[in-house]
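G., the chain you wanted modeled:
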Amino acid sequence: IAFDYGFLLRISEDARRAEALNEYLSCRSYLAGYGPTQADAEAFKLLCGPPNQRHAHALRWYRHIAALLPQMNGQAADSTKGKRVQPPWSPPDGTEIPKLKLYNSLTRTKELFVPQRGNRVLWYCCGPTVYDASHMGHARSYISFDILRRILMNYFKYDVFYCMNITDIDDKIIKRARQNHLLVQYRAKKPSASQILQDVLTAKQPFQVKLAETTDPDKKQMLERLDTAVTTALTPLQGAIQSKAPDAAIQKQAEVLLEEAKDLLSDWLDSQFGSQVTENSIFSLLPKYWEGEYHKDMDALNVLPADVLTRVSEYVPEIVEFVKKILDNGYGYESNGSVYFDTAKFDASSGHSYAKLVPEAVGDQKALQEGEGDLSISADRLSEKHSQNDFALWKASKPGEPSWESPWGKGRPGWHIECSAMAGSILGESMDIHGGGFDLRFPHHDNELAQSEAYFENNHWVRYFLHTGHLTIAGCKMSKSLKNFITIKDALAKHTARQLRLAFLMHSWKDTLDYSNNTMESAIQYEKFMSEFFLNVKDILRTPTDITGQFEKWEAEEIELNKSFYEKKEAVHEALCDNIDTRSALEEMRALVSQSNAYVAARKSAKLLPNRMLLQSIAHYLTDMFKTFGAIEGTEPIGFPVGNNGQSADLESTVMPYLNVLSDFREGVRKIAREQKVTEVLQLCDVVRDDILPELGVRLEDHEEGKEISKGQTKKLRKLYEAQEKLYNEYLQTNQNGS
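Predicted structure as tokens:
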């Protein structure tokens, strides 16, 4: 058996090398019938001297080879006649492969991503509070997290388990449900115009006090807009009543005022009669409706559904048990039927720290009160706490609020405890990723961390905290409470889901994104640029060839483009490893397309066909990346899908034969029209090419040799037939007129 001494090359220490050699020789015959080889000589040279006597096999072998070595050297000239052996082999040095790093809000830096359990990633994301229409501020978080989730699953191949909650019990929901209910009742009574005027004027008094006391500039601006709208609607009604205008005119003005003042009026109605709303179904119908609308919006945006969806209303028993254990562990206290978290005691405990995410925000009463909710910051509620920094785990229900049984009396969950109990129930004592919007860091996520680590008695409930940046309009934060938002449905009426996703992909997921015409125009132009490339490649691939003809010789141009292709793939990978930098990744993809376009143009200029297989590989790669980002649905191997939303068929391949027929027919008509000098028919041919087909997403282009090609993104096949039929009838009519 040939002596395999390659393993000795990997050992630098002589004593260790002798020990390894001894172990190797202990199971190999090297005396009886033994003939030394060049391999023995090479191994001999690796040793600095005779092995230690305790390595008996290695020492015996060493002495044997030492005795035979002169004979071996004498036979070196005849060595070519003997048996040849393989030369030594060593692995290449290689290069360091980039590893995924994520910006972790717990450290405010990019950290190497290491899941706790092999390849499995446990991920919890804060979902919506469903009391109104979802807006683009929500889309900012949910599309961004959908992109991150898809990349982790489909690019980095992690096994992601994604859990998200629906908050359907909350101060905002309770208040909005009561307001809607009371306003409906008010309208049902059909109040007179004078009654509406009187009630609005009455409601305006506490509103003016609230406006004067508001210091937050964004909220103040929102309230001022409402005040202006109500005042503007008040004046015509007052004038109509004073001038004793016709009843119909007065009632019309009253309806205008009621519509403009509905927020102001419903708030006043709630302050007067909210405590009388006792039917629990009133508080469940509102969130149920808006949750349904939320899911429709997410589906329209191509956001993947969560693996597990939890609703607060379904987890009240688990929340009660969660609160009980926090009390048992000594981190909470009961006060007047409510239960509060003792932040000071928790922070003073060994191994615990309060406000890990935003420690500088501790004591920010404005933020803390917003976290407690509008219905939970009355003077009596605030006086129940040991410290103003403490927060509610369980709230004793007041009249006009839904309630559930608990050891502390009837009440409802605090906001922060909901996520802790639900995430803990599904994901256990520690998760890999927790996600949410930037504005949730304090107090919501800091309070989640504190109460969860108090429950599990650990300090690692979340390993990586990811927070998406704000979405602004003209520099102002988009917010429901500020009534400064564009609904997702409104956004989708102007732009496609792909265009919205591309806009998000072109910006960092953790930074502020301004939703503007410029932002969307950049996304649209990027989409057009990529779509044009895909259409060109598909046109090249449609060029007839046999099965062997598609494999063409590579010249210097192909080698250069292929080199650039792999460089761009490496650059994309590096960008995605760097905190999933999709902005840089898309720029590298754009550069790859620019280089591919230059290659195609150069080949066509030289009257040569571009290399099909190389362009197909590039187009496949780009398509796969867009699928990874969630910007392409369907199974088409190249490019963006064609057809209306919901169409699963490959419409382009279905329609293309008809487009080719239309193209050939048009070219034939143009040829006859040119020969017979019928300019009207030529003009009609131009109308079909320039006006009708582009509206259907189809463009006709001319090859160098004069033959037309068609690039299709058509929506309505019937219109193609109508265009063809119109052209043919016009041609027949022209000939019948004797032209």
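The first helix runs from residue 6 to 9.

Shout if anything looks off.
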